[in-house]
Design brief:
The complex is a heterodimer of chains A (141) and B (128). Chain A is of the alpha+beta class. Chain A has one domain (19-137): Hotdog Thioesterase (Thiol Ester Dehydrase, Chain A, Roll). Chain A is built from 3 helices and 8 strands. In chain A, the strands form 2 sheets. A 6-stranded antiparallel beta sheet of chain A has the order 1-2-6-7-8-5. In chain A, strands 3-4 form a two-stranded antiparallel sheet. In chain A, strand 7 (112-120) and strand 8 (129-137) form a beta hairpin. The longest helix of chain A is centred in the middle third of the chain and has 20 residues, at 55-74. Chain A is globular and about 45 Å long. Chain B is α+β, with helices and mostly antiparallel strands and 128 residues long. The two termini of chain B are 25 Å apart. Chain B has 2 helices and 6 strands; from the N terminus they run αββαββββ. Chain B has one domain (6-124): Roll (Thiol Ester Dehydrase, Chain A). Chain B is globular and about 50 Å long. In chain B, a hairpin with a 6-residue loop joins strand 1 (14-16) and strand 2. The longest helix of chain B is centred in the middle third of the chain and has 20 residues, at 41-60. A 6-stranded antiparallel beta sheet of chain B has the order 1-2-4-5-6-3, covered by helices on one side. Classes of the chains: A alpha+beta (141), B alpha+beta (128). Chain A: One of its GO terms (cellular component) is cytosol. Chain A: InterPro entries: HotDog_dom_sf, PAAI_dom, Thioestr_dom. Chain A: Keywords: Hydrolase. Chain A: Residues 51-126 form the Thioesterase domain. Chain A: One of its GO terms (molecular function) is 1,4-dihydroxy-2-naphthoyl-CoA thioesterase activity.
Chain lengths: 141, 128
Amino acid sequence: MPAAFDPLAFVRLPLAHHGTHLGIAYHAHGANWAEFALPYRADLIGEEESGVLASGPILTLMDQAASLAVWIRRGAFLPHATLDLRIDYLRPAAPGRTVIGRGECYHLTRSVAFVRGQAHDGDPGDPVAHVAGTFMTTGSW
Amino acid sequence: MVRLPPYAERLGMRLEGDGARSGIVMPFGPSVLGRPGFLHGGVIGGLLEVAAIVALRPAIDDAAVTIKPINLTVDYMRGGRDADTHAAATIRRLGSRIANVDVSAWQEDASRPIAAARLTFLLRRPAD
């Protein structure tokens, strides 16, 4: 069995990957959820005229939040890969604002984890995006 | 001429091909890494969306029209390895207000996609 999963120890690991490259950082977590923050950056703009963030970084934010939520709920670090992810873009994030993404793991089977989540730019009651997806354990890295 | 947004340029994405056959290529590197040795799922989705917009822009052929993504559904089929990743789109329907686009991403072999996505876009014309 893998060692018990400690989300705070995990997010403190000095890992460099796509998420850290975009400036995404741990924000908060609970029993079956995790939040990451994506600070606004000009080099992540998707539409130059409006200055709105590209949706790719928001997808990465949500993928990471949901992924951590799965390990928290499982209580173990089982390597997994995203099987599918759907994102609804409810409205553009306001330029200049940090986007907070919360992922929740609402069901687990032995190999599949079901997740959902929302992203907001200041008010959780006025989200910018909604996601639903699944992760599949890979057995090994 | 289609210009890639700052997000795409930051990650080294480039246009490849021309006209109806155009697509996007993205190099592998630390900035797109997910779990060790594999592309991050988020950047694969980002690449698919950029490729969809790049295909839509010339098909709409009116710079005044804004293209807003409504949603994106990605299926991840294989891990993305240390290689260039290509993405190309097929426009399923181009209406006056909605566009439906399918996009596929692959590495060595286009018949072995690493991911595919379905996207819905809202098109806003100046007269609206």
